[in-house]
Each structure stands twice: as structure tokens, then as C-alpha cells.
Amino acid sequence: MPGIFLGALVIGAAYAAAFLPRAAPAAPWLMVAGLTLLLVALCVLGTRRGGNSRPLALRLGLGFLALVLLGGFGAALALPPESPATPLLLGLPRRAALVVYGIGILPALFLPLVYAFSFERAVLSDTELRQLRERLAELPERQDRP
Questions:
Q1: What does pTM read for this prediction?
Q2: pLDDT tens-digit profile of 67-117?
Q3: Is 1 a domain residue?
Q4: Count: domains in the chain
């Protein structure tokens, strides 16, 4: 899957950029892009079945996930430095609140709904399940069992 490879490549570039003085400022932004690409590509891989078609709700949900990740990590990186006088958001500094609530909790609220809306097309039908069981029954027994 090209998204997983590309995401891992961008993350590797972020680590390499961290050690280069001229490229070090770009390292966090490369990491944000690589993590977003990798996480969304893994979600796409997890929802892959037979063909490449996915329900609209699933595609919109994964697009929203990408926006949440880019926006949350990007906003946390773009915020000015914290000071002792900076107000807390729900008991956390602004950056930590963005990461915990925005990136941690927000996807946990909408991704189950996305899965529920696309459930009928995401699971095996009775016919597909029967065909799978028939193919499994045709496989030879393993001889190396004790």
C-alpha cells in the first residue's frame, strides 16, 4: 500500500531532518504529515475488502480523521510558547489539551459512528461467509500437529 510506505518514508525523513541543523525546523511538520498519512493509510487498509470501493460515510470519516490529525497536531505546533500565566483548558495546558482532547478523544467519538453507518457494506454477507467457509474446508489438514 503506497500510503503506508510514503507515510513511513516521511516519518524517516523527519527523524533525519532533526539531525540536520538547517532542516531541523521542518522536522516536526514532516512528522505531522507522515503520522497523518500513515494513520489514515492504516485505517484504509483495515477497511479494505474485495474491491476498492468504500461507503461514502467511511470515506468522509477518514477524510475528517485526516483533518483532525493535521489540524490538531498543526495547531499544537503553531501555538506560541506556554507561560505560567497561560490559562488551562479543562485542566491541561493548551498544547496538551489539543492533543489529548482533539486528537485523542474526538476521533474516538466519530469513528464508531462512521463504522456503524458503513457496517452493512464493511462486513461479509451470508453468501461471502459461506464461500469463505467452503474454501477453508477445501484446504488440506496440517500434518505437523501432535
A1: 0.74
A2: 999 999 999 899 888 888 888 888 888 888 888 988 889 888 888 888 777
A3: yes
A4: 2
Q: What pLDDT sits at residue 142? A: 63
- Distance in angstroms (rounded) separating the CA atoms of residues 49 and 20: 42
Tell me phi and psi for residue 145, to 5 degrees: -75, 145
Do 4 and 56 belong to one domain? no
Tell which residue, 54, 63, 52, 51, has the closest CA to residue 111: 63
Q: For residue 125, tell me if it sits in a domain.
A: yes
Question: Distance between CA atoms of 112 and 116, rounded to whole angstroms?
Answer: 6
Structural contact between residues 68 and 107, judged by C-beta atoms closer than 8 angstroms: yes
Host domain of residue 125: 52-79+89-138
Rounded CA-CA distance 105/20 in Å is: 34
